[in-house]
Amino acid sequence: MRVVFPAILDGFACTRASCACRASLAAAPATASGDGFPFRDTEAALLAGAAAVAHGAPSAAKTAATAHADYPIIAIATPQGAELTFSSLCPTVRSLLASNREPVALARAEGGWRCALRVFQPEGGLKEVRLTPRKTVPWAAFSATRDALLDLIAEPTLPLLARLARVAALLDAALTDRNLPVPVPPLTARGFLAFRGFVESRTASAPTEAMARFAADALPLWGDDVGLAASDIPALLDALAGDWRSHFRTWLVPTERDIAPAIEAWLGARLFAIPLDRDQSIARGYAEFFEGFAVALRYAAAFGEVRQQRINARMIVAALALGEHLVATAGESLPGFEMPRDVHERGPRMADLDMTLESIC
């Protein structure tokens, strides 16, 4: 059987009983293990277990860990073989993403994975993938578009924010045309400014109280990466509610170049997984993708403020994981990015644009 997965995770093996994700699954109540889509069920169980550990609740019936024995991997059958997705809630997965120094790439193994896995078989065999809740596109068109998105995020000549703007423009074109594939739109000054404004608005409107609650509940899964304990949660709430722009400039902006490979690794892994890992439409998956990125920026700025230190690779990947899973579990309606249309006046020159992360401040 052919298996495809992000190459950065080729050496993955989460077998240590001491891994925080194992302890959290062991503490998950049996009721957290449902019979719906496996990946969602597993992460719900994991987060329930982490909250029990974080708040000192007694462990319930310990059957959830057995029900999710493959965690943090899920194998999904596709027309081209099995695809493996890895959950960023697992500290072992995040450590590999944080150590990334190579461009985003996929690994392909013709003889299967290194150990036995249960392969989830989606209804219909994924011959069609949902673009929107009511519109589907052929698997081949989706797969080709996903390859294009991975190429865009790996483009070494552009800053990360500009790469994300290109990803957003391609998805906007697909959703506008209600079709895939679509030509990759060129990066324009006006399009980049629209995307930068979108990210800034979503970062500024991040739900700080919900972020603090979620971080407190999930603390056993990420606290060691950032160096925070339960006693730091009140300070985290204060930092989240404070001047995020100042915190962002002080603690994250100076390290953008150093942490860029880790961000790229997380972005690439997410682009590969969406929307199959949560059994949703492409439109919903990418709405969560951009929202989670914006929320992660707020988390990272707050981490730096509480620790009074610049953000490193482990801290930014933890922030990205928290942003991703907070948005996914909330399940709220999200705004989508739309490119400016029918604008004829002259725009600024590309050379005059600030495409650093600092520019969203």
Q: Brief description of this entry?
A:
The protein is an alpha/beta fold.
Keywords:
single chain, 361 residues, alpha/beta, 5-stranded mixed beta sheet, two-stranded antiparallel ribbon, 7 strands
Describe the structure.
By secondary structure, the chain is of the alpha/beta class. 51% of the residues lie in helices and 8% in strands. The chain contains 14 helices and seven strands. A five-stranded mixed beta sheet has the order 4-1-3-2-5. The chain has a two-stranded antiparallel sheet with strand order 6-7. α5 (139-153) runs antiparallel to α12 and α6 (160-177) packs across α7. The radius of gyration is 20 Å and the shape is globular. The protein starts with a strand and ends in a 31-residue tail after the last helix. The model has no long low-confidence stretch (mean pLDDT 90).
Give the strand content: 5-15%
Number of strands: 7
Helix content: 40-55%
Straight-line N-to-C gap: 48 Å
Helix and strand arrangement:
Layout: E1 3-6, H1 20-26, H2 38-54, H3 64-67, E2 73-78, E3 81-86, H4 91-98, E4 106-109, E5 119-120, E6 128-130, E7 136-138, H5 139-153, H6 160-177, H7 189-204, H8 208-217, H9 219-226, H10 233-241, H11 244-252, H12 256-273, H13 282-307, H14 313-330
Parallel strand pairs: 1-3, 2-5
Antiparallel strand pairs: 1-4, 2-3, 6-7
